[in-house]
Automatic annotation (TrEMBL):
It comes from Xiphophorus couchianus. Residues 2-160 form the TLDc domain. One of its GO terms (biological process) is immune response. The lineage of its organism: Eukaryota, Metazoa, Chordata, Craniata, Vertebrata. This is Interferon induced protein 44c2. Gene3D superfamilies: P-loop containing nucleotide triphosphate hydrolases (3.40.50.300). Belongs to the IFI44 family.
């Protein structure tokens, strides 16, 4: 499924955003893809909170309506003091903004297309607008839409307020070179609690394009001391991990070196193909369970039609605690939190359930904090002061039932050519936390051995148990 993209040019988007105090736009509906019908509009735009309609005509006008209220097909006339109609034209610097006449309703919340009285969109389920100014909104038709009432595109965006900066950050970070050095040293010196295990094995799971591979590249770069791109990254509707056959559709277990000729870190980052909404595309839950249990070998080639089987070439039958996953990091794009679909949340919940059953600690990485909040883009040190990022962290914690303390914002390297101290610090903080949680996993294995009579063999038994679970699907 290819991604649905906005038809707004950067100039038009900036002009539209200038009508709001401080907001970002999420595309909910695009008529050329979803249909120029009232049913398609309501299916995607009802109960979405504040939204803005963006209609395009062949005369070059981009115009529409904002409401802070829900569409709900209630049949009621809705009053909304914040509602307005607007129009953007390339040759004009400032958009036209027309507020609602006081005391008049902003729109009729019916079953047909959005009806702002003076402008009725998707009129009679067609790519058309009915224009009748002078009742609730006063405007000149030539200025609003140039008297061209046929639409070449019609979109609706959710408008999300970005909020400001908190007076006090919700987590304290020292943004100093000493802190960076201390974090690096503590990660390099990390030793898993269990002697038989050499490296903490961390699995990165998340929707397509969330930044899983970029997270590995970023950590690798930060430790190397220069930018690296070992894992292939990119943007597309489907997982980059499946686009170039025989090149990137692999399960990868990456080791990381401290410096070019330095030693290997006590950490393995396992990168997977992205999760997709549909049941039969992207990474499937059965494959995730096989990875949890250590059965998937490095470079196993994912297949979206079937999960790994015991007789598959990349299946590792005999596993030890070195092969199992010790911590799962869910990777979610902060910009897309409110667009996570039920289907995607169901998939993530199914994976969480399996991880819980196996006692694997889980953490949530919110990537692209720079894209999500301009205040963070301006200065990464604002990451724990941004009201928007905090709101998204809380939302994610709610959606997935993961305590807020396990939700960590992060910014990956994406287009930079040089490393940045603050980006490194945030990345290392995440890594340090991951290692702490991996330790909880190891500690649990040890506390299970209450009488202390079991040496390393205990873990061979455990691994055997893991294996049996798989075979007998206990
Ligand atoms: N600005 C910004 N861009 C990011 C960040 N993380 C990733 N990106 C960009 O997002 C796009 C997707 O990143 P990937 O790392 O390929 O995502 P992925 O989760 O591995 O995707 P699949 O393997 O396709 O499932 C790339 O263009 C990255 O450069 C981030 O923190 N900030
Ligand atoms: Mg990837």
């Amino acid at each position: 499924m290819s991604a649905v993209t906005s038809s707004l040019s950067k100039h038009q988007e900036n002009n539209l955003l200038s009508l709001f105090s401080y907001a970002r736009l999420h595309l909910l509906y695009k008529a050329s893809i979803h249909g120029f019908t009232a049913a398609a509009f309501h299916g995607r735009c009802d109960q979405q909170g504040p939204t803005v309609i963006v209609a395009y005509n062949a005369a070059g006008f981009v115009f529409g309506a904002y409401t802070s209220k829900d569409y709900a097909r209630s049949g009621a006339a809705v009053s909304d003091g914040e509602a307005f109609l607007y129009s953007i034209r390339a040759e004009k610097d400032k958009p036209l903004r027309v507020g609602c006449v006081s005391g008049k309703p902003a729109f009729t919340d019916g079953g047909p297309g959005p009806n702002f009285g003076d402008l009725v969109f998707l009129h009679e389920d067609k790519p058309a607008v009915q224009s009748n100014p002078g009742n609730c909104f006063i405007f000149q038709e030539a200025e609003m839409h140039g008297n061209d009432l046929a639409l070449i595109e019609f979109e609706v965006y959710r408008v999300e307020g970005l909020g400001d900066l908190l007076e006090k950050p919700w987590r304290n970070i020292q943004w100093t070179s000493e802190k960076k050095q201390q974090l690096m040293t503590s990660i390099q010196n990390y030793l898993p609690e269990i002697k038989a295990v050499n490296q903490a094995r961390v699995l990165l799971v998340g929707p397509v394009g969330a930044g899983k591979s970029s997270f590995f590249n970023s950590i690798n770069s930060a430790f190397r001391g220069n930018m690296t791109c070992q894992a292939i990254t990119g943007t597309a509707g489907t997982s980059v991990t499946t686009q170039v056959p025989a090149k990137v559709n692999f399960f990868r277990a990456y080791t990381i070196k401290a410096g070019r000729r330095g030693g290997t870190l006590p950490l393995i980052l396992c990168d997977t193909m992205g999760l997709e909404e549909n049941a039969d595309t992207g990474l499937n839950v059965d494959d995730v369970v096989s990875i949890f249990k250590g059965h998937m070998k490095d470079r196993y080639q994912f297949s979206s039609c079937s999960s790994i089987l015991e007789d598959s070439p990349g299946y590792q039958k005999h596993v030890t605690l070195n092969d199992t996953i010790h911590c799962v990091a869910y990777v979610i794009d902060t910009c897309k939190v409110s667009l996570l679909s039920e289907k995607m949340l169901d998939k993530l919940t199914a994976i969480r359930k399996k991880a819980n059953q196996l006692g694997i600690p889980q953490i949530l990485l919110m990537t692209k904090v720079d894209e999500a909040c301009p205040l963070v883009a301006k200065d990464l040190k604002n990451v724990y002061r941004s009201v928007y990022i905090q709101k998204k962290a809380r939302q994610l914690s709610d959606f997935l039932g993961i305590p807020l303390s396990y939700v960590l914002p992060v910014k990956n390297y994406s287009e930079e050519l040089e490393l940045d101290q603050n980006t490194d610090i945030l990345l290392f903080m995440v890594l340090e936390q991951i290692l702490n949680y991996a330790d909880s996993y190891f500690e649990n294995q040890i506390t299970d051995d209450q009488d202390g009579s079991n040496g390393p063999d205990k873990y061979l038994e455990l691994s055997f148990y893991v294996d049996c679970c798989h075979i007998h699907k206990l």
